[in-house]
Amino acid sequence: MQPLGGGWDGLLAPLFSDERYLKIREFLKHEYSHYTVYPDMYDLYNCFRYTPLDQLKVVLLGQDPYHEPNQAHGLCFSVQKGVKLPPSLVNIYRELQNDLGIPPSDSGDLSAWARQGVLLLNTSLTVRAHVANSHSKCGWSWFTDNVIRLISDNKENVVFILWGGNARSKKPLIDKNKHLIIESAHPSPLSAYNGFFGSKPFSKTNEYLQNQGMPPINWDLNG
Predict the structure, then answer these.
(1) Residue 223 confidence (pLDDT)
(2) What pLDDT is stored for residue 3 in this prediction?
(3) pLDDT for 2
(4) Residues with Cβ < 8 Å from 141, sequence gap 6 or more?
């Protein structure tokens, strides 16, 4: 495995040397060699590569990668440039406009957020093509639970944005005395009207960061 850089290798070393991670690796070797798996194996850890640990301000937690061609590239909710916006991302942009007045971007590439300190982490980092949640039982939950716990233990004043039941189940892993937790329904069309719309996660995040003496996130992707 290639080094992640950005301070992550030292923090995550205990996970990468754990036998449970080695079992995930063996599972992935079989899956990538026998099926189409997303994202590309070289993009699997992009969320860490795009967001150095010392710049981390926000953890935005998704579920598993998009499972159709050319969508997933290792950042939760993000799709590669030129790809049609998935419904959940359309709703994220809608809430962003209602919250901060920022018009929706034509691009679904969220890497500009990642480069500002927003860790776009899925709870499962891979998925078999066309089969949602197909890798949710392979050990990724153990891995990402520990990533969240390590961030909570080793950082201060991080905003954790938890959308939907899967993400909200991680709340006990986060020290609420050190960090801000923003939670709501998932932006999926099936649940967005049950509390996602109107939750104002973007302005709440920036208000907290500024109160902690940190620069806000520029959520505008139209530049």
Answers:
(1) 73
(2) 85
(3) 72
(4) 123, 124
Residue carrying structure tokens 């994202």: 39
> Does the predicted TM-score (pTM) go above 0.85?
yes
pLDDT value, residue 11: 96
- Assess whether 64 carries a catalytic annotation: yes
First to last CA, the chain: 34
Which residue stretches of the chain have pLDDT < 50? none
Instruction: Single out the catalytic residue among 40, 43, 64, 175.
Output: 64
